[in-house]
Specification:
CATH topology of the domain at 29-85: Ybab, Chain: A
Helix content: 55-70%
Oligomer: single chain
CATH architecture of the domain at 29-85: 2-Layer Sandwich
Strand content: 15-25%
Number of strands: 3
Structural class: alpha+beta
Radius of gyration: 20 Å
Length: about 100
C-alpha cells in the first residue's frame, strides 16, 4: 500500500505535469523549410497559427514543390513540440523515483 508521503509525491508530480503541459500547449513553436522560404508557427497543441511563404523565392505556381515545403516546415515545427514534451516530461518523471516509493 502507498503511505501518505508517497501519495503526496504522486499528487505533486501530477500537478507539475499538468502545469508543464499547459505551458507547452500555450507556447509557440516555429518550423521552416527551403532555407526559410516557408516558415510556420504552431501551438504546443499542434494547432497551426501561421504559414509564411517568401513568394519571391519560390514558384507559387509549382504546387507540388510548395506542398512539400509546407509539409516539411510543419513537420519541423511538430518535431520541436514533440522534443519539448519529451524533454520536459521526461525530466519531471525522472525526479520521482518510483522504485524507491513502492
Amino acid at each position: 500500500m502507498f503511505n501518505s508521503q508517497v501519495l503526496k509525491k504522486l499528487q505533486k508530480m501530477q500537478e507539475d505535469l499538468k502545469k508543464v503541459q499547459a505551458e507547452i500547449n500555450a507556447s509557440t513553436f516555429y518550423g521552416q523549410s527551403g532555407g526559410s522560404v516557408v516558415r510556420v508557427a504552431v501551438k504546443g497543441t499542434k494547432e497551426v497559427i501561421s504559414i509564411d511563404i517568401k513568394h519571391n523565392e519560390v514558384d507559387v505556381n509549382d504546387g507540388k514543390t510548395l506542398e512539400e515545403l509546407i509539409i516539411a516546415a510543419l513537420n519541423d515545427a511538430f518535431s520541436k513540440v514533440d522534443k519539448e514534451i519529451e524533454e520536459t516530461m521526461g525530466a519531471l518523471t525522472q525526479e520521482v523515483n518510483l522504485a524507491g516509493m513502492l
